[in-house]
Structures are given as C-alpha cells and as structure tokens.
Amino acid sequence: MARIFLPVMLSLFAGSVFAAPALVTGAALPPNIADQAGGGLPNAPGEPKVSQTGLDNFQVANFLENLESAFFQEGLMNYTWWGTGGQTNGVSNLEVVSHIAAQEEVHVAAIVDLLKANGVRDVAPCKYSFPVTDEKSFLALGNIITTVGIGALIGLQRVLADTDPGLEPIVGSILPVESRHDAFFRMTAHEIPNPTTFETRISGAWAYNLALDFTVGGSCSNLPPSITSLPIFPDLGIVGYGSPSFATPNAPGKLIFKIGQEKMLPAGWNVQPLWIAWVNQDNLPAYTPVTINGNGELHADVQPGMFGVAFAALTNQNTATNVDDLTKATLAGPIPIPLT
Ligand SMILES: *[C@@H]1O[C@H](CO)[C@@H](O)[C@H](O)[C@H]1NC(C)=O
C-alpha cells in the first residue's frame, strides 16, 4: 500500500519545542557513543583539505545533520515514556533508534571536525519542533527526514564530484548507513525496505527549505553566509491529508496543493502556465500542469510511474532537466510525497 501522510509533517507544527541537545564535538565524543554507534570518528590523522565550495556545502550538510541528530536524540528521550516501543524482526525499536541516534551524533562530529580543520566555523544547532505524537509518527517522520538527508548527501556528492572528488568516498560511507536507517523505518510500518532502484538526489537549497519546516523561526544563531544565502521558498502543502492516509500504489491520481505563505511570491506569480515538477530517482524532472481554483488551491495530476518518495515543487517552467536548475525555477515547495 502506498502512503501519503505528509502535510501532517510538513505543514503543521504540533508538539512542544525542545532545545537541541548539546552537540559533542570530535575530541569530546564520549566512548559510549562510539560503542552505541558501532564505531567512533575515523582515526586517521589529519583532515583532508577542502575547497571553498566544498566547505560551503559541508556547512549546509552540518545544518541538516544537526536537525537529524536532534530529531533522533529527542526521539530517544521520548522512548522513556513510549517504553521499548514495538519490535521489528525481533529487535526492539528502541535498540535500533539508539544506534541511529549515536550514528547521527558521530556524523555531525565528523563534519564539524572537517570544517574546523579547514579553518571555517561549524554550524550551531537551532531549536526544532517536530510534529510527533507517538512512536508511530516518530518512525514515519524518521522515514521522511532520512529520505531528505539521503537526497541531500547525493546532492553533496554531485558538488564534490566537481570540486573535491577525493571526498566523495567519505560521503559515500555515510549514505548507506542512512539508507539502512530508512529501511528500518519502512519495515516498522510493514513497508518493503527497498522500494526503488535509485535514490533521489535533491539540491542543498531544497533540503534546507525542508529542514526549515521543523526549525523554530529565529532560533538559529550566527548562520554562515553559505546558509543565509540560500533561497527560501513558501511551503507547498497538500490539501485533504490531515493524518496518515493511503493512496493507490504509484498512482494517487490527482493532488490538491496549497501554498503556505503566498505573500512571499512576487506579484503575477500565478500567471499560467504553471506546473508541478516531480523529482524521482535518476529521471528527468517530470511536469504536470496546474490549474488554480477560486480558493487559490492548485490542482495537478501526479506523474505516474514514480516509486518510493518523490519530491514535488511548484514552478512556472517545464524545461529544467535537473534538480539544480529546477531549484532556480522553484516558486514553492518542495514537498516530499511518499508513494510506495
Ligand atoms: C517527543 O515527544 C514530545 C511530547 O509528546 C513531542 O512534542 C515531540 O515532538 C517528540 N519528538 C520526537 C522527535 O519524537
């Protein structure tokens, strides 16, 4: 069964606001974290030299990994009242989540070390607010946040391929770990763990916009220009999916979108033609035409033949052939849409 349970997570902020747990940086990583993670920071001496573009993109990765790390630390604390949670394949969910939380903490520390060794600041965590009410919604949001993280890491590899190809294996050693996390989240919901042939790359700017949905406004201090220079788009929500719900496999048919903060768009933004752009796996972005009804709701067909999680964004062109060009032409969004 395919699920669409998105707007819950992406548009509504339920739940209280937690301060991000203090991050432990490399040198200070306590030994129990390494045990819990299944390994600590790499012990090779010295850090590779990274280009300016590479460093800018690693700062964005630091911002995203901070959010992931805070999400799992907070979820881990929540297991105190969720109990050990359910079991998946005979292993307690709590046990798996404690590994995930520790692994994310080491990932953050590794990126922080890389930045500092190259003489640039690391990125301080913000405060976050997650629409989680129970273990089930935590694991469902874990699937989305991890999928965004995976897409952004492939985006980072795309950049490094040009600027710092020697660093690609470092990112490559993180990616499958994130995919294992994601496979686990899917299995807790009785979904097959491996829904797609390829993972879906997204841009740093798209990932940043998705992260902002869970970031408390004004809570980030002293962000570097690599992050403050990223574009901020209005949210794109889906009308009519207030809580987890189901759709026909691979073909939810039609969706109705609503723009969160229309005021952010320039006058005349709604001059048609407009499209919803769909990004999925290694395919060219697909475009389906948008019609706007009297309530300002945007109706668009879902591009058929997509699997896993697709990313949708509102745009006024249908010629961009990759997610980076599409990012430059994004009017609102993106929004992740779980399909299978
Ligand atoms: C933890 O639980 C609180 C209280 O239910 C909730 O507001 C918060 O979103 C939860 N966070 C996570 C990551 O599970």
Explain this structure.
About 40% of the residues lie in helices and about 15% in strands. With about 350 residues, it is α+β, with helices and mostly antiparallel strands. The chain folds into two domains: about 15-230, Ferritin, core subunit, four-helix bundle (Ferritin); about 235-340, Immunoglobulin-like. The strands form four sheets. A four-stranded antiparallel sheet has the order 4-6-10-9. The protein has a four-stranded antiparallel sheet with strand order 8-7-11-12. A hairpin with a 5-residue loop joins strand 9 (about 290) and strand 10. Helix 3 packs antiparallel against helix 4 (about 95-115) and helix 3 (about 50-80) runs antiparallel to helix 5. Mean pLDDT is about 90; it is low at about 1-25 and about 240-250. Bound molecules: 2-acetamido-2-deoxy-beta-D-glucopyranose. It comes from Capronia epimyces CBS 606.96. Keywords: Signal.
Short note summarizing the structure:
By secondary structure, the chain is an alpha+beta fold.
Regarding quaternary structure, what we see is single chain
- The number of domains: 2
CATH class category label of the largest domain? Mainly Alpha
Mean pLDDT: 88
**Number of strand elements:** 12
| Beta-strand fraction estimate | 5-15%
Name the CATH architecture of the largest domain: Up-down Bundle
Query: Roughly how much helix do the residues carry, as a percent range?
Result: 40-55%
Structural class: alpha+beta
Shape: globular
Distance between the termini: 6 Å
Q: What small molecules does this complex bind?
A: 2-acetamido-2-deoxy-beta-D-glucopyranose
Q: What's the gyration radius in Å?
A: 19 Å
Number of helices: 9
Protein name: Ferritin-like domain-containing protein
Pfam family, one: Ferritin_2
Keywords: Signal
